[in-house]
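Anyone else keep sequences and structure tokens together like this?

Example one:
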Amino acid sequence: MNELLKSVLFSVFVILCGVAIVLLFSVVVFEKPLEIFQSPDERGESLKSLDRFDLRARNYEGYIVEFNEEPAVESESVEQSNAGITGNAISSTRVERIRKEKQQAKLKISEIVKKKRGDKGISKTKLKKGVSLSPEEDLIEDLVLGEYEKVFNGIALNITDEEAEEIKTLPEVKNVYPNLRVEATLMDSVHLIGADKVWQLDSNGSNCAESGKECLTGKGVTIGIIDTGVDYTHQDLGGCFGESCKVVGGYDFVNYDDDPMDDQGHGTHVAATAAGNGVLKGVAPDAKIYAFKVLDAEGSGYWDDILAAIEQSIDPNQDGNTEDKLDVVSLSLGGDCESVYNGDCGPDDPVSTAIDNVVDAGVVAVIAAGNEGNDGYYDEGTIGTPGTARKAITVGASDKFNNLAWFSSRGPVIAEDKSFA
């Protein structure tokens, strides 16, 4: 068996799976106001009184702080990828450095917030896992919306723009970005990528009906759907949830539980396009699905949850070992950079950075370009983030005649200062 050909065919099939998922889906992003709270009095009696879902309704949710140390996941070599070799890509040494730097930064951030907000910004010292926390440690735990170290080294914080500006000056901090809100919109999908032709091939590229070998149907492939969740009770998606089902796992980052049930519909449509197997078949009918719910019942979500889902795709069981990493992640979502690419929106923003790092670790990332085209007028440079990630497979929209759709976002991706492309 030609191992190189087998590897190439598998890669092509995996890419087709992802391309079909995002063929005609997109998400619109709305930038949040820079200031979360105008004064300490507006914060209420304490930070504990703030409900995260109330923040979601108000169209913004803090900032993402990136630290200097590189993320814990190391790149997979070309030789490893071609040979199908898997191993743990997480550097324990780097993890130690990351956590040490993060702890130092957290204490300094707490001091900044304490100074800005006064005593009203601090809740009482409490016991966590039997350990008494100082007021500074307790305060930072109240502020944290999410923490990341595998494919992005940073934390998401519920802080004001004034606090963010001062935090940016800390020596441990590389940059600070607004934690943007995203909303999903659904377009018509069509079957135009020729996956049915791939189904007729075996791993050597021969006609599987003639060779008698297994056809390429997605068997052994795992696909992460980062979306509104998946309705796994649908028979075409297995009818159940768990290790013995088609939807084998996932997480609900919106409701903070282990049940990523779809309550909006977008993610289920995406999952069925990728791997449905019933009355209608998806591109990879024998593939397994991981459902990561990052968008709520209204189709809205935030970057902090999307970052958390990308992190989990590299280590689904969260045991610190990446041997169980997914083959593909699909993100039918993105942020409209309004044709202005910079550190806050573009190839160097937190989510695009995380995508590049997860690809380096051996996961194929397929992302919608967006629907910001305008029939050829002023539609260049309209690709949304994280479709702007340098190592993503970014997919535009096509019409029913297999032409580039008038509304499809297009490149190029060039920064204001021409620093990247």
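And example two:
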Amino acid sequence: MPFQFISASTAKSHMNNAPLQYKAPFGLAPTTIGVSLPVNGLEPPRIAVIGAGAAGAACAAGLLRAGFDVTVFDKSRGLGGRMATHRAQWADASGSTHVAEFDHGCSQFTATRPRFQATVKRAEALGYASRWSQQVYAAFPLPRERQVVVPTPNMPAFCRHLLSGVPLRLGHAVTGLQRCPGGWLLHLADDHAEGRTEGPFEQVLLTIPPAQAAMLLAGHQNDWAAALAAVRMAPRWTLMAVTDDLDWPWDAAEIDESERGALAWIGRNDRAPGRRITAGLVPWVAHATSAWSLAHLEDDPADVCKALRAALEKKLPRGLPVRWHHAGVHRWRYAQLANPAAGGFDCWWSAGLGLGVCGDSFGDGTVEAAWCSGDELADAVAASLDDMLDVQTVETADTTENVDTADSAKTAKTTEAEPELADSTH
């Protein structure tokens, strides 16, 4: 059956009206939007957001602004997901230590939708993002100059800015979800222990790669789990290397498919705004093609590094030998979206279950798609909870009115009886 979903804008249009009935995605039973809250209605629900990438940051930030109690969990020790910056150290022949930084995941993005543009503009004003006219070597008719946004001073800075004020539980992998009377328990694992739980949370929102989300949803929402398991994310090996400075006029090179070989993209990390510049040295980031990465997915990292270093050297200016100072690789298992999540929605949300899913797989795999998906999920959750609170407020008002009416009746009866008493004693 086709997806059926209540969007945030539709939910908001029903605010302050009767409880909205809807059928959740994949044929969940019709339910009234809203979840159980404390009887007094004063405490905000506890919400767990799993994933601290662009989607998770947007979702958590939106819910925090709406006044909800939000905690973000991520298995990594850092923020940003694939918006990542790796810091490497090495010693030269003299024993001197050098440092280089590599934006080895997503290294820039674009902003075309108004709400995301406004968010980027605020980040720019605070110094967490910069506009960049990137000079790219690319085959015609692709543009040679591209207007992009780059977080500063590193890629995680954008998500760190969005998550300001949100409680973070980094280095905690969520290995399972468990229903309980108060909502959901999270099963956690970290470097020190496994089998711990945290909760209960009234809602759990998954913003992690589809394959990982599918594993957590299995047994709780199997239709969602099956749909997410069908989303393919291509892997990618990435080379991070430092060489002597070279006469290379481009900020990046997008390699044409007919010339690719192992590499799809090459970039000079020191050309991006706010990045570290070391005289005489160039930090390179080179992404392998999805096909090459898949074919060598389980290869020894040392062999992958050697192969990608050779591939990069072939693309650099010829005539002089390349002097290598540092080289390393990183494997992204879920790097690039191959096919989007089915249904054409920005996110999935079931108020009845207290479960939601969002991420770049609900769009075109970009940072903007991830942010918009997370932002929409936050709106959908907030709208449904606000709608339920409105209903509670009306019910409370009705109860208060009934009590006041009863008290008034008692007072009226007493007022009538008092003169009779006075007359009889006179």
